[in-house]
Amino acid sequence: MKYTGYELLWLFFVYSFLGWLIETAVASGxxxxxxxxxxxxxxxxxxxxxxxxxMTLTLRDLKGRxxxxxxxxxxxxxxxxxxxxxxxxxINHHKWWDYSGRRxxxxxxxxxTYSTLWGLLGVxxxxxGNEFVTVIYDLIPDLMGRVTIWALSLTALLDSMASFAGxxxxxxxxxxxxxxxxQLGVWTHRLRVWVVNHAExxxxxxxxxxxxxxxxxxxxxxxxxxxxxxxxxxxxxxGAFLGDLVETVFCRFTMDRWMSRSSLxxxxxxxxxxxxxxxxxxxxxxxxxxSDALLFVTGTLLGGVYEYACSVFTEIVFxxxxxxxxxIPFNLGGRINLLYCFFWGIAAVVWIxxxxxxxxxxxxxxPQTGGKIVSWLLIVFMSVNMAVSxxxxxxxxxxxxxxxxxxxxxxxxxxxxDDARMQKTYPSxxxx
Length: 432
Description:
This protein is mostly helical and 432 residues long. It is built from 13 helices and 6 strands. The strands form 3 sheets. It has a two-stranded antiparallel sheet. Strands 3-6 form a two-stranded antiparallel ribbon. It has a two-stranded antiparallel sheet with strand order 4-5.
């Protein structure tokens, strides 16, 4: 079943609310008082909504294959819970929840009990829940439904801004006071402080101890130090280039021919590899002292889910299948296979243990001023490159379906990136 954008957003908000009901009921039952367990102020837990939509989009091929659907739901939801926990810890330097006391837990963020629960809930949602929820949305008049979705989206955006401001305020990363020249400025500042403090106090009540996070490491003044924006961006560019190089050489030896493996129309860059490097670094860079086996298992699972999600995303958005592992043993829908998942695991160990520490040091040797100037030039180039590549791929798929160019940008894409050029840039991309 295909869903419209409004229906997907409806599923997102409904499951976010249902998730909040579950979390709040459990937390309130344990404390014998009402506790808003959500990260956000409103009655939502967006991690549930995101997980539901993500599973709906990526696991649609598994509907009817209950065992694989259960395993897929359990794995995706578990990894999402682990990723969110890791990211929050990176921001706040403290665990927001801890399953260390439970059996079969990993890193204190996930455990077998909840993974099993997520799998069961995911199966129910995809098999029965989605259809019921969308039927309810279809009963709402079209205009009213769209207005409701837009209102919920705006509310969610404001709530998110306030909640993240509260998290940053816990770490004293945003100022509390400043000068104002007008009464309106004073009122605005007071409202802002009230909203942030309210969000902060609610989070501390729901997640005791997060205000006791560790202090950040001392800054040395080097360019791109730590694991911040500039460091991750440079790793993205380097990873995208090296990933394209590795795949090109691999195809030369396995297929006996040179072929483009780039994701973009300008330059040799594989966005899938670049994003994989960023995700792995952000989540695992502080785990370099952990065992190789642990990093290997984490990389195998994380890489498998990531590659599967990328395959589904590119197919939905661009109408093309960029890789197909159907002929390789132990594959899942042709999107991933066990052997390449093991490669992701090996890559995680090699990257975190060997490559990242050295590359991180080299990047930090770049001069401050020059590094920032070059970074923003690259940011503009890569942003335009990805935007143009996306539009070119959309038109490439549209032309294959016989759709004529109706807008000026479509005609420009057709003239600049015709079928011959697109076939040369994306030789393995096939219509779905």
